Amino acid sequence: MWSTPLDSALFAAIDAREAALRLARTPGLAWLDGGLTHGREGRFSFVSTAPCEVVEQLLPDPSPLALLDRLRFPARPTTPSSLSPDEVPLWVGHVSYDAVAPRPHDDLALASVPALRFARYDAWCAFDHLDQRAYLVGDDQAACERLHERLHGAPLSDDELHFESELVDVTPAE
User: Fold this and answer.
1) Looking at residues 135-162, what average pLDDT do you find?
2) 10, 145 contact by CB (below 8 A)
């Protein structure tokens, strides 16, 4: 795994939300939001876009979970940072209920619905909520440089943010 701190000027200007807004025009946005109220698992937030690989298994497959065995995990040598390679996500996706408990589907339209879909990202913006630092982490320096270039894009305008007012807070009640 290759990593570097975000340059101080860029880090001062953005947080995970702003990074997501800057990357939102690129297909495949993934935002894994953390926060210190979520314990150790919430220490970091991760934002990325433009997956380097996407795999899926359709509903009609008789054993869709076999896809999980085919996900590749490239070797990730480390460079110094506060993140270890096992803390950085590689594959992000979903497993549908039908993949675990299949039921017959008569609808032909459902034949094209993925039971599982995963995207692999070769670089992430990692925001450390404990140390108040941000890093670019990834497979190699070239992947991190590509993500850094995408981060320098303009954030979405206020007009493009109209959906934000429709977002629902799903924070569990204490």
Assistant:
1) 79
2) no
Give the integer Cα–Cα distance in Å for 118 and 109: 21
139-148 in b/e form (b: 16+ CB < 10 A) is beeebbebbb
Question: pTM for this one?
Answer: 0.74
C-alpha neighbours within 13 Å on the C-beta side of residue 53: 11
Asked whether the beta carbons of 124 and 144 are under 8 A apart, the reply is: no
Residues shown for the chain: 174
Mean pLDDT of 140-159: 80
Closest CA to 15 of 137, 151, 144: 151
Of 140, 137, 130, 15, nearest in space to 85 by CA: 137
CA distance linking residue 13 with residue 67, whole number of Å: 40
Query: For the chain, where are the E strands, in sequence order?
Result: 2-5, 30-32, 44-48, 53-58, 91-95, 114-120, 123-128, 133-138
